[in-house]
Amino acid sequence: MNNRVINYREEYVGKTFETKSCGKCTVIKYENSRNVTVKFHAPEYTTICRIGNLKKGNVNNPLYPSVYRKGYIGVGKYSTKDVKVYKTWCSLMLRSYDKKFHLSRPTYKDVTVCEEWHNFQNFAGWCYSQKFFSFVEKNGRSYHLDKDILVKGNKVYSPETCCFVPNEINVLLITTRPKKEKYPKGISYLKKCGKFNARLSVGGSMIYLGLFKNLEEAFGAYKEAKEIYIKQVATKWRGSIDDRVYNSLLSWNVSLND
Q1: Which residues pair with 49 in a beta bridge?
Q2: Which residue of 6, 30, 133, 162 has the fewest CB atoms within a 10 Å radius of its CB?
Q3: What is the Cα gyration radius of the chain?
Q4: What's the per-residue H, E or C state across the chain?
């Protein structure tokens, strides 16, 4: 071993460096400028890098929660180059943990991602195990990840609660309405006649269901029509959706508090 390597070993071993995005790491072994072993301490991880990259701070810890302080890439065969699955993962992390996003979409304030899926490797593995992850509609649109069809009102993204569905089903059960609107989705009050109007959105068009003397009757008409429509959509997509999704839609209960 030449004196130059010995000198560099003495200079760098034990020295701590700050990285750009993964905190600090310490050199624990120096073979040569292309083979430097460093150890991250929070979370603990050991890797080999070049001394030039180390000096620039370009050394990564795949266990560091760099995505909204929760998600990390992890150690495994999946990488950020798996664009489709990576974008899907980043999207659910954003919905769950981005405070700016919650300002415009407050219904996601209480949504979380299960700890298992904080590790991108686990999420990617689950996606590729799902039959409908790679499905594409006739118009070229990919299926969407949904968290609350299998479990109504669910607030946690997890392997047990999530599934991939076509856009028509993904938007079928959306009940979000403006804060100023005090009546359930599909119901409005007409002051001129003092009655409640019930309408149902079907394929982008509004279907008139009638005028009713009170909210209960109007909602009853809406509920009946919506549940029939949900079953029709489920039947239309049967065979192209998970059986669990199909069965859930067949038994879906439209409630006043949706």
Answers
A1: 36
A2: 6
A3: 26
A4: CCHHHHHHHHHHCCCEEECCCCCEEEEEEEEECCEEEEEEECCEEEEEECHHHHHHCCCCCCCCCCECCCEECCCCCCCCCCHHHHHHHHHHHHHHHCHHHHHHCHHHCCCEECHHHHEHHHHHHHHHHCCCCCCECCCCCECEEECCCCCCCCCEECCCCCEEECHHHHCCCCCCCCCCCCCCCCEEEECCCCEEEEEEEECCEEEEEEEECCHHHHHHHHHHHHHHHHHHHHHHHCCCCCHHHHHHHHCCCCCCCC
How far is residue 209's CA from residue 117's CA, in Å, rounded to a whole number? 43
- Residues near 69 by Cβ (< 8 Å), separated by ≥ 6? 97
Angle formed at CA 92 by CA 88 and CA 93, multiple of 5 degrees: 115
Going by their DSSP bridges, the two strands 163-165 and 144-146 should be labelled as antiparallel
Owner of token pair 């195990």:
129
pLDDT in tens, 192-217: 999 999 999 998 899 999 999 999 99
This prediction's pTM:
0.89
Residue 39 tokens read as 């150890």
